[in-house]
């Protein structure tokens, strides 16, 4: 199979770094040819927990991918939303006479409205449109080729902290990859996961539940309108359960993953966890299922409060009737979606799983498969632009 139908991506999560080699033949169904997952210490509150751990994980992921694939010609990297800043801006142009709009006009519009243009310490990695207004009367997604006298764009920009950008770029270049395409991971995931028609017909709200950090974002058209991160996920849940029940962290995580919130336990039914304590001694304990369900429900209630606070903080509050797509592995236990919906005040919650790759359909793979689909979109744009 020709390599032109392949992409190599790196998804930087808050518990692991995943690198995939993905191919898309004429059938349109993506196939993961190689999957590398390297655990590391992660990030929280806009900083690496341990930068050396991150650097080593990046190098190891690239090395193992190269062992399978050989030289990586181009790598798409999804930078965590925790390191990104989203800003929207609107601007317009009036032409001397009615004429067709071309790519140069749109590029000039983006340059004119760029809110990061004169700001030090930021590197622009994404710019896209939410929508355009033609002659102050007609809202469109893509005005290229249309005739008009006035064009206004509602535009979205995402920048990454320069320190993080340099850190990633140095680590990846040292590992032997020269051509690196950076994007905000949340933006790429939503562009790759949701069809154009879904994004163009209204706002798409997505909550990506992670390990240490989670993200909520609102998209319309090709642009993010709002994005917020918060320090909560299943790793935080496990820490709370560990403290509350006085058990080792690994056992608390095992207990969380066993939990089925849709199950109605009988009196006396228990979950059993086994592991080792801090001294390395064997540990085993039984916990009433109903009690564990209460602990987990309280964890999800805190998570939901973070999401509700974020939605209320956005300049244009999201209507209570607007549903939420749930991705990521942070809430991937049975009944979590219904519990999350109730704690969100009854807002409709739909689990969003990748549909383009038959091997990785779980919501925990939405970030990396969505990034791969975004990379295919970018490769197609390059082919159309340069004719290769």
Fold topology:
Blueprint: E1 6-12, E2 16-23, E3 31-39, E4 43-44, E5 47-48, H1 51-69, E6 75-79, E7 84-100, H2 103-113, E8 122-134, E9 138-140, E10 147-161, H3 162-174, E11 180-184, H4 185-193, H5 196-200, E12 204-208, E13 214-220, E14 223-230, H6 234-245, H7 249-258, E15 270-276, E16 282-288, H8 289-313, E17 324-327, H9 336-343, E18 349-351, H10 366-386
Parallel strand pairs: 1-6, 6-11, 12-17, 17-18
Antiparallel strand pairs: 1-2, 2-3, 4-5, 7-10, 8-9, 8-10, 12-13, 13-14, 15-16
Helix pairs in contact: 1-3, 4-10, 6-7, 6-8, 8-9
Give your account of this protein's structure:
The chain starts with 5 loop residues before the first strand and ends with a helix. Helices cover 34% and strands 33% of the residues. The protein is built from 10 helices and 18 strands. It has helices at residues 51-69, 103-113, 162-174, 185-193, 196-200, 234-245, 249-258, 289-313, 336-343, 366-386, and strands at 6-12, 16-23, 31-39, 43-44, 47-48, 75-79, 84-100, 122-134, 138-140, 147-161, 180-184, 204-208, 214-220, 223-230, 270-276, 282-288, 324-327, 349-351. It is globular and about 80 Å long. Strands 3-2-1-6-11 form a 5-stranded mixed β-sheet, with helices on both faces. Strands 14-13-12-17-18 form a 5-stranded mixed β-sheet, with helices on both faces. The model has no long low-confidence stretch (mean pLDDT 94). Among the domains are: 85-160, Dna Ligase, domain 1 (2-Layer Sandwich); 195-351, ATPase, nucleotide binding domain (Nucleotidyltransferase, domain 5, 2-Layer Sandwich), CATH 3.30.420.40. Strand 4 and strand 5 (47-48) form a beta hairpin. By secondary structure, it is of the alpha+beta class.
């Amino acid at each position: 199979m020709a390599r032109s139908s392949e992409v190599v991506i790196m998804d930087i999560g808050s518990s692991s770094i995943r690198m995939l080699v993905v191919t898309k033949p004429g059938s349109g169904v993506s196939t993961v040819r190689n999957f590398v997952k390297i655990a590391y210490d992660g990030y929280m509150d806009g900083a690496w927990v341990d930068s050396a751990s991150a650097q080593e994980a990046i190098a190891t992921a690239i090395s193992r991918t190269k062992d399978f694939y050989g030289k990586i010609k181009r790598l798409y990297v999804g930078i965590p939303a925790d390191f990104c800043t989203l800003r929207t801006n609107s601007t317009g142009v009036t032409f001397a006479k009615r004429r067709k709009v071309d790519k140069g006009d749109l590029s000039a519009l983006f340059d004119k409205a760029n809110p990061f243009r004169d700001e030090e310490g930021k590197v622009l990695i994404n710019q896209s449109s939410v929508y355009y207004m033609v002659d102050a009367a007609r809202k469109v997604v893509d005005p290229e080729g249309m005739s008009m006298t006035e064009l206004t764009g509602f535009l979205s920009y995402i920048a990454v902290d320069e320190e993080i950008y340099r850190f990633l770029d140095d680590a990846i270049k040292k590992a032997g990859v020269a051509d690196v395409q950076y994007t905000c991971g949340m933006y790429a995931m939503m562009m790759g996961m949701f069809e154009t028609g879904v994004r163009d017909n209204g706002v798409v709200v997505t909550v990506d539940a992670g390990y240490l950090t989670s993200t909520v974002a609102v998209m319309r058209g090709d642009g993010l309108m709002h994005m917020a991160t918060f320090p909560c996920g299943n790793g935080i849940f496990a820490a709370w359960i560990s403290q509350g029940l006085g058990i080792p962290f690994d056992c608390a995580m095992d207990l969380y993953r066993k939990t089925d919130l849709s199950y109605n336990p009988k009196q006396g039914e228990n979950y059993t966890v086994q592991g080792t304590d801090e001294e390395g001694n064997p540990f085993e304990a039984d916990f009433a299922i109903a009690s564990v369900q209460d602990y987990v429900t309280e964890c999800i209630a805190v998570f939901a409060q973070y999401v509700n606070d974020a939605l209320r903080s956005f300049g244009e509050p999201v209507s209570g009737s607007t549903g939420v797509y749930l991705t990521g592995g942070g809430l991937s236990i049975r009944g979590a979606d219904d519990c999350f919906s109730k704690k969100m005040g009854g807002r409709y919650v739909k689990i969003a799983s990748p549909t383009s790759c038959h091997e990785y359909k779980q919501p925990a793979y939405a970030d990396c498969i969505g990034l791969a689909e975004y990379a295919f979109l970018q490769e197609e744009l390059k082919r159309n632009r340069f004719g290769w």
